[in-house]
Specification:
heterodimer; B: about 400 residues; alpha/beta; Peroxisomal Thiolase, Chain A, domain 1; eleven-stranded mixed sheet; 11 strands
Chain lengths: ~425, ~400
């Protein structure tokens, strides 16, 4: 490994050699990019289940990927397969079902869902009053072993590990809405340790089912601006009223620069630094003084060995909730000072919605595409500026710009904060 | 040959363990050293026909002083947050804002409790509802407690530990049953070895006293439903798991960092390896054989023992028994007395292993029969195995710290 393959701290430089992307906008990196720079929304009225009794009736569902039985782990796995196929094919790494490194998977928490619970109740033959004893009796018949396996926390990662032939024990991660960024961070650390020359990172989330939607709804986290659906996600606007749940997946093949060069791989970008910091203030709210997010941003800059002046674009966490966007602006202002208002900060969640577990991975891919194309996807639905947030959110229309570095922010329930520093492919 | 001490060694400097046997490592040592046959604490009636090992009564106020925090949690989070507090306390980290600010958390977690009454009421009403799907929407909207969501999310054990104990260096949660616990420890140790962190809080918790937990494994046909017996003794009757409530956290720290702050170490995690296979016949044994080949040169066969994480589930337990029988070391399968606790089961065995090497002696057999022989002499090293009931194989070596 030559000096050019190491960063200023003497660690292996970690590069991206393959990417895959699938959202409610469509399948594939090219299709998603085309629609993002065109400012199109993937948010629509939910057709997957009846909407009676719900306050929020829209989401960025992925309805074009077959999954049977339709449940979060199944559709999450199907989407993950497709983005991994795309990323591995682009990287031209390893052989079929023989990826030369570990799998880091960001996955929503797995939980038995209502169709399965209803099937158990039906199998129990209970009529008026159904209890868990009835479900347990039906469970013991041996007719539900496939349900058991599907709803293990480990089965999505296991199946992906088999399909792609990743090495070692696959790691499934949940750091709430920062999970996708945590998966990348774990891979970067493993490559920097010299434990592996390559890693497959994937974030996937297919959580649009009644109970998940209702849980967020009961926390007043979701937009209720149901009509028209595509106008609901409006980060940084004064009239933003919550996030829009969405589904999607993204994958990245990460490699040491030395390994990528040795095999003549095309480098798509560099993961220059990762920062994290947990927040002890509250289970769902950030510390109002912003210290944890500010520390997270500074940790990322320090890990990359750069200063705030080196950052040319921020892909915001930008969920479109009143609180997130205010906190994010407050913390970016603290770190970037008076320059903050001049750094383009767009939220692609305005178009894709909030893909929760997958968001960090999806937005890392979008940030790398932003750097590669030197073009910033916009924040759509920006009609009513919030005077408290004097942010250049690249309103409504994509913008060409010269950018040498981007930051991708991810913040989640449970005090989870992760920031990534990304760079375009060298020279 | 033991490896020479290095500043990058991963030392266990804090242990927080709670289970049916009691609170704290000393209580576990006392329970396991009691003369006579092993006496596990089993609740045979509460979830009959499934025996479970219930959590000992804990005074939660001692580690979770604010009642409001306790109310925001479900039992699995209270157990874990309590155990994390014990671990931080025993490591001398608790309440030290400077240390907590750079303590990295790696938690292995499943999900949280459901509202069983709400589930039952909805299932009961659905059959007669004119539109069952709309009925489901309406009832969930009106009956779910908004904060229950926060008790169900996997990463909200870590979130609660941040809130209650102020651990904020970083926070990562791994999911995936037994393998999640093993990988949490492996990655913490790897980060320490590489200088990617000095001070870690690693652990998990499990509430076995939950109908939805029993439901998951009953669907898999994996639970023991007869009169209680140890994990090996269950095998002639087809095997099965008895779940156990448990919380275990470890403070794992680089030797250099522990030395600089004058922390006393219980043990060193000398090696740890994790892997997976598809469990074709012989595959798990082949994985374990590779892991053992890496450890064997460092193990003194005359003064070593095995703590096995065998769950009792037939397929994996029978294969692990065959593998372990070939090692020639005394074996103890702790699930015979703690029950199986999935994510934290391996971490709890590391805690017990640290205590065994600290005491220099192995406790008496936990299961009658030929698999667990009395230890002949002093024990200075413990090989800790974890074969997941479905997937994942891990092997670690626990040694005295110096």
């Amino acid at each position: 490994m030559g000096a050019a393959d190491l960063d200023p701290q003497g660690r292996p430089v970690v590069v991206v050699t393959g990417m895959g992307l699938l959202t409610s906008l469509g399948e594939g990196v090219a299709e998603n990019w085309r629609r993002l720079v065109a400012g199109q929304s993937g948010i629509r009225r939910i057709t997957r289940f009846p909407l009676g009794g719900l306050r929020t009736t829209i989401a960025g569902t992925v309805d074009f990927v077959p999954a049977e039985p339709l449940c979060a782990p199944e559709l999450s796995e199907r989407m993950a397969e497709r983005v991994c196929e795309e990323a591995v094919a682009e990287a031209r790494i390893g052989a079929r079902a023989d990826f030369p490194g570990p799998l880091f998977l960001a996955l929503p928490p797995v939980e038995l869902e209502w169709p399965q619970r209803r099937a158990l109740a039906a199998a129990a033959g209970a009529n008026a009053a159904v209890s868990y004893d009835d479900l347990l009796a039906a469970a013991g018949t041996g007719a539900f072993t496939d349900v058991y396996e599907r709803f293990l926390f480990g089965s999505v990662a296991e199946n992906l590990a088999v399909r792609f032939g990743t090495k070692g024990s696959p790691v499934a991660i949940s750091t709430a809405c920062a999970s996708g960024a945590t998966a990348i961070q774990l891979a970067v650390e493993a490559i920097r340790r010299g434990e592996t020359a390559a890693a497959l990172c994937v974030g996937t989330d297919a959580s649009v089912n009644p109970e998940s939607l209702i849980r967020f709804s009961l926390l007043s986290a979701l937009s209720t601006r149901n009509d028209p659906p595509e106008a609901a996600s409006r980060p940084f606007s004064k009239d933003r009223d919550g996030f829009v749940m969405a589904e999607g997946a993204a994958a990245l093949v990460l490699e040491s620069l030395a390994a990528a060069r040795a095999r003549g791989a095309r480098v798509l970008g560099v993961v220059e630094g990762c920062g994290e910091k947990a927040d002890s203030f509250h289970r769902t709210r950030s510390n109002p003084d912003g210290r944890p997010i500010i520390a997270c941003l500074r940790n990322a800059l320090a890990d990359a060995g750069i200063t705030p002046d080196d950052v040319d674009y921020i892909n915001a966490h930008g969920t479109s909730t009143p609180e997130n966007d205010r906190m994010e602006w407050q913390c970016v202002s603290a770190v970037f000072g008076e320059r903050a208002g001049r750094i383009p900060i767009s939220s692609t969640k305005s178009m894709i919605g909030h893909t929760l577990t997958a968001a960090g991975t999806i937005e890392a891919v979008v940030s790398l595409l932003t750097l590669r194309h030197q073009c910033i996807p916009p924040t759509i639905n920006y009609a009513t500026p919030d005077p408290a947030l004097p942010v250049d959110c690249v309103p409504n229309v994509a913008r060409d710009a010269r950018m040498g570095r981007a930051i991708s922010n991810s913040f989640g329930f449970g005090g989870q904060n992760v920031c990534l520093v990304l760079k375009p492919a060298p020279g | 040959m033991r490896e020479a001490p290095s500043g990058r060694d991963a030392l266990i400097t804090g242990i927080g363990l709670v289970s049916s046997l009691g609170e704290g490592i000393e209580a576990h040592r006392a329970a396991l050293s009691r003369p006579g046959p092993c006496r596990p604490v089993v609740d045979a009636a509460g979830f009959a026909p499934w025996p479970v090992h219930p959590m000992v009564a804990l005074e939660y106020d001692r580690q979770i002083p604010r009642r409001g925090d306790q109310r925001q949690m479900e039992q699995w989070q209270r157990i874990g947050t309590y155990a994390a507090g014990l671990a931080l306390e025993s490591a001398g980290v608790k309440g030290d804002a400077g240390l907590l600010d750079r303590t990295h958390m790696v938690v292995a977690a499943g999900g949280g409790e459901r509202d069983y009454a709400v589930d039952a009421a909805i299932l009961s009403g659905m059959a007669a509802a004119p539109d069952p799907d709309v009925f489901l929407n309406e009832r969930l909207m009106s009956d779910l407690r908004p904060t229950l969501f926060l008790a169900q999310l996997s990463n909200l054990l870590a979130g609660n530990i941040s809130v209650v104990h102020g651990v904020v260096g970083s926070s990562r949660t791994f999911m995936g049953e037994e393998a999640a616990g093993a990988d949490a420890v492996r990655i913490a140790c790897a980060r320490i070895a590489a200088g990617q962190g000095e001070l870690f809080l690693v652990g998990g918790s499990y509430n076995a006293q939950r109908p939805d937990i029993l439901l998951q494994y009953e669907m898999g046909g994996l639970l023991w439903k007869r009169e209680f017996a140890g994990v090996w003794s269950r095998q002639p009757a087809g095997g099965g798991m008895v779940m156990g409530s448990l919380g275990c956290f470890l403070v794992i720290e680089s030797r250099a960092h522990a030395r600089a702050r004058g922390a006393v170490a219980h043990a060193r995690i000398g090696a740890i390896a994790t892997d997976r296979c598809g469990r074709a016949p012989g595959a798990a044994a082949a994985t374990a054989a590779r892991q053992w080949a890496g450890l064997r040169p460092r193990v003194d066969g005359a003064a070593a023992a095995v703590l096995s994480g065998a769950s009792g589930a037939a397929a994996a337990t029978v294969q692990e028994r065959a593998f372990l029988s070939g090692l020639g070391l005394p074996v103890r399968a702790t699930a015979s007395v703690l029950g199986h606790s999935m994510e934290p089961s391996f971490i709890a065995n590391l805690a017990l292993a640290a205590d065994v090497v600290g005491q220099g002696r192995l406790f008496a057999p936990l299961d009658p029969g030929e698999m667990e022989a009395p230890a002949g002499g002093p024990v200075a090293q413990v090989v800790v195995t974890s074969w997941g009931h479905w997937r994942g194989e891990c092997m670690a070596l626990v040694e005295p710290p110096d």
